[in-house]
Amino acid sequence: MSLLFLFDMDDVLYDYDWRERMAGLTAITGHDLDELRRRWWISGREWSAEAGDPATPEGYLEMVNESIGASIPREEWVRIRGDATRPRPDALAAVQRATELGRVALLTNNGILVHHHLHEVAPELVPVMGRENMHATAAFGARKPDPLVFERVLAHYGTDAADAFFTDDRPENVAGAESIGITGHLYRDAAGMLQAIESFAARVPAS
To answer: 94-98 long-range contacts, Cβ below 8 Å, gap at least 24?
Structure first.
């Protein structure tokens, strides 16, 4: 089996400007940042969505619109998310290097609507890892740092934990992966991530 390299998206492979995203939503809804966060994010509904509830893009958008009192079209929701998501070239280069050492995949805490549109939110990753390897946690019915999401990803790829590497900027997410035997790396910068990728591949050669 080949090695599996799993990467977080926001603040690892991409800069995520959540204030820009909120500004885009404010322009549509008239709600300021605090009110938007209260209605959807602080309420915990986004966390539930990242764990797979709702389970369909249509259900997700319906719940969001009901919560924030708007009627935002699907394509506009995706556009606003994409506009706030900007690639980090050095980090993407490290992912490209990982493709030479094993399989690569994205695992981001996001709802099912974003899962279906990751190729639009993060288009630079499509030629690197393939659209089929770009996952939001909602597709696995659990969110990081729950070890369950990592177990399901490993089952999806038919990979043993000992042959998997995961990087994230949040310590609790790295700890969740490490708790089931995945080699974790806490992201600080692209150079450190690349070094960790090389070290892992040297220590655990693909069989």
So the answer is: 94/190, 94/193, 94/194, 94/197, 95/5, 95/7, 95/13, 95/125, 95/128, 95/129, 96/128, 97/194, 97/197, 97/198, 98/5, 98/165, 98/197
